Each structure stands twice: as structure tokens, then as C-alpha cells.
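notes to self, project folder thing:

trying the whole complex as one job this time. last attempt i did each chain seperately and stitching them together was a nightmare. two parts in total, labels are on each line so i dont mix them up again. if this works i'll redo the older ones the same way
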Amino acid sequence: MTLAARDVGVTYGSRIALQPVTVELARGELVALVGPNGAGKTSLLRALAGLLPHSGTVAWSGDPLDSLAARARARLIAYLPQTPSLHWPMTARDLVGLGRLPHRAFGAAPSEDDRSATAWALEQTETTAFAERSVDRLSSGERARVLLARALAVRAPVLLVDEPIAALDPYHQLQVMSTLRGYAADGALVVAVLHDLSLVARFSTRVLLLDGGTVVDDDRPERALNARALERHYRVEPFVTTHEGEPLIVPWRRLTPR
Amino acid sequence: MTAGSQVAAHGTREARGGWRLSGALGVLAIAAAGASLVIGRTSGGPTFGFGGPDLAPIVLTEIRLPRTLLALLVGGTLGLCGAALQGLLRNPLAEPGLLGASSGAAFGAVIVFYFGLAGADSLALPAGAVAGSLVALAALYGLAGRRGDFLTVVLAGIAINAFAAALTSLALNFAPSPYAALEILFWMLGSLADRSLVHVALALPLMVPGWLLVIAAARGLDALTLGEDTAASLGLDPRRTQWLVIGGTALAVGGAVAVTGVVGFVGLVVPHLLRGRVGQHPSRLLLPSFLGGAVLTAVADIAIRLMPPGPELKLGVVTALLGAPFFLHLIVRARPAGGA
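result (full assembly):
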């Protein structure tokens, strides 16, 4: 089963945010969307989620997403925005439980499935310890993990996450990356906008490199993230080495601006 | 105890807490209704009982029952719609009165009064009130509803309120006679006195569909806790939620204002007092707010009848006198978490 985008493009007024792109993403993959700021990563992610008007079509195993009922689509695709809002200070567990809304009928109490999915998502993000605490009493990193747990709790075959580790400490960056990798390995498609190139190289199975609204490369991470590509698209000279057999990429020096 | 059973216990405890709160408020509402049926008022002050076996049926069905029913229905409407609007705009200061729904409805009704249609066709008054309420809420939505941030919504609400009040003043200015102006003015103060079962029958067909629309938005309100994008990704279109709440509020509040005039602040105070007790869940707040609004309004209306001899206070005056300082108190200690 694949998520297939055909000629998906995004424009804001007259500005082109994303040139039409055709790409097929399969279950089991952890796809990293990388590229400089303003490259069109978030536009592509939101178009895949069906949250942004776009040209072309997105289809799940042949069925266009537009043809699915809102609830069926919500069960198929979970989405975590880059800067999620949090308007009422509920407990972390209640907040994560909102991820079960697409699975619950109107007025129904949470089922055993709902409760175990919520508990599982809290565990996956190591947030069980403060599950009963109000989310306005969490640090921004703790809150970011609770919000990721909310997206995981949907237990959707497709998980789209926008910069899920930007607010996290190194321990939890590694922890969340291995959670996403594990979720993909269990048979889901995970698409993540990421900036840490070493983590992308280690954990992702596929890289879509974007620049100026165009997908300029679609390859395995160790090939997509080569020094020449990074110099050309990120305008940085990287220090590239390997550690314990894994690639290590450190942006080292800025090149002259375009 | 295993982790799983702990989780299950937590879930059921939460649900039980919500129902227990609603149950307690329901009992209070019944008690208030009982008291409201036996307490009356004449120009000489409060009276108790029904004034003899001959008078009892008339006093009960013609005076006390309509007044009690309207207190519960109008209060419930204001509590429910206040909770839903606060959830929709994600703002604990939202309230039908502050957002211009009530003043829009009042202006719609005043127009009907002004053209002398109120007596001719009893349906004209509620129709005018609903139309005014709808126009006011649509204007609010157009001005500020989509982003729904704190300042824009409140400022737009103030502007709409001021405009509706100005139009109402204009109508008073051009009132055909001083008597007509006084009639409009007194009606606008908001009162449950001297209403009949006909008024109940007028308001109910507007209130019930309004309540149902608002309740249909319950899941959408929960999803909006996480913002519009996430709500949409959860399959609960924010647009649909917005129109359900705005349409439902316009209908229900329009119906309420049509029969009682403007009763402010109930919709602000009640959800605010109860929110912490339902774990901040917008959907779990709806039923308790309905019952809490009914209790508060019925109790306020009983308090009016218990006042010492003198002219009877208007309900709208009492709720505004108590509610305005409460609103000020909320602004002064506005919690950063609420608007984040």
C-alpha cells in the first residue's frame, strides 16, 4: 500500500511554494523531507495530509484522498503540525486521547482500544510519568513529546510529522527518532520534516531533498546527503565522517550567499 | 494492579466525575424549580405558597410555572451556548452577550416592536430576534472568528455590541411615542416576570434545534483544542464546527432573547466555574454548563422575588450587576495558559 502524489503542487497567490511533484511513498519507509528554510517541505507535507489546497492528486493504494470520508481519512493519516496549538490545559493523557477522536462514535466513551492506544503512545514518547499533569505545567520539550504522542495515538498507517524533534534535548531526539523508525518498521509510512542531517542519515530510509520549491533529489540518505548536494542546496560546507559504521554529518562552514 | 487496569480505572473515574457533576447540578435545578414554584411576589414583597386552594391552579399554571420553565430554559441556553462559544473561539472570555449575539437579537426584536408588529403576529418577535442574532454572529465570524485570537474576537464583539446598541438607540430616538420607547426599554432589561406558557411555546421550537446544533459540534470543539489544522486532520472540519456553534447559538439565544430580553453574563460565568471540574474538556463542559446555567438563573430569579418590598428588580439588571465584576476579575487574573 502506497501514498502516491501525482503532480502535487502548491501556490500561495502568485508565489509558487511547491513545483508539481510526483512521488510514491510506501509503508515501512521513514521518509525525511529535508532542505533549507522555505524549500517547500511543510507545503508538501500539508498537501499530503490534505490540509492545503493543491494541484494534482494524492491517492492511498489507488483511491484519491478526496474520495474518502473525513473520518476514514483521519484514521488513515495522522498529522503533527510544526507549531501545534494547545488551547485548554487538559492533562497529558486527555490530550493524547484526542488522537482517538476518529475512532470514536459521537457520544461514545473511550473503548479499551482507545485507552490502550493512548497508554501505548504515552509510553512510546516516555511521557507516561507526567500523564496526569496538566499540559500547561510541562516544559516545551515535554509538551512537544505529548503532542507527538497525540499523533501516534491515532495509530494511523500514515504518520506525517513536521519537525518533531526541534524542541527536544539530545536524549529525546534519539529516542523520538528510534520511535518513528520503529513505527515505520511495524508497517507504517512515516514522513518527517527534519533538519538534523546526522539523525536523518542514521534513522531515515529515504530522503526527499527540496530546494526552492522543487524536489531536487529522492534517494537513500547516504547518497542524497552527499557533500556536493549539501554545499549546493544548504550553502554549507559539511564535515562528513562515519562513526561506528554510521554516517556523521556536521555543517561546518557557511559558503557565500547566493 | 497492572498498567492496563490503572488506565481503565482512570478513564472510568473521569467519566464518573463528569456524570456526578451533571447529576448534582440536575438535583440542584430540580430543587430550584421547586422553590421557584412556591415563592411568589406582590407589590408588598415576597409571598409563599399559592394563596388558597381556589387560586392555586391559576397561580401555578399562569404565573409560577411559565416563569420557572423560562428560567431553566433561558439559563440553560445561555450556559450551553457560552460553553460552546468559549470552546469554538478557544477563549474563556467568550459569551453570547459579549459577542453581540444578545444585543443583535435585542435590536432585531426592537425593530419588530418599533414597527408595531409584536402584537399583530406573535411569531414576528422571535423571528426578528433570531435574525438579529444571526447577523451579529455572522459579522463577528467575518471580522474575527477564523483566527479566533483573544484580542480580535473581544474587540470585534465590543464593536458589534456598540453598533447594535447604537441602532437600538436610534430606534428609541425615533420611537412613535414615549410609551413605545418605555416599553422597548423595559423589555430590553431582561425579565422573567409576567410571562405565560405561550412564551415558552414560542421559545422552545427555536431553543431545542439550537441546542442540538451546538451539541452536534461537541467532538469538533474537543478537536479544536489542538488548533484548526489538527482538528481538520482528525476528520472534524473546523468550518463545520464553527457554523454549528454559531448557527445553534443564534437560534437558541435568539429564542431566549425574544421572550425574556437580554440576560447577560450567565454564559460567561457558568462555564468558567465548571471548566476545571471536567478536566478542561470542551465537550464534557456542555451538559454541566446547561444545568449550571439553569440553576444560576432560577436562583437569581428567586432572589429577585425575595427582595424587600419595592419595585421588582429586572433579572438582566441583577445578572449584569453580579457578572460585570466577575468579568473584570477574570481579566485581571487572565491566565497565560488559557490563551496559549
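what i see at first glance: Chain B touches chain A at residues 3-4, 7-8, 10-11, 14-15, 90, 216, 218-219, 222-227, 229-230, 232-237, 275, 279-282, 337-338, 340 (CB under 8 Å).
need to look closer tmrw
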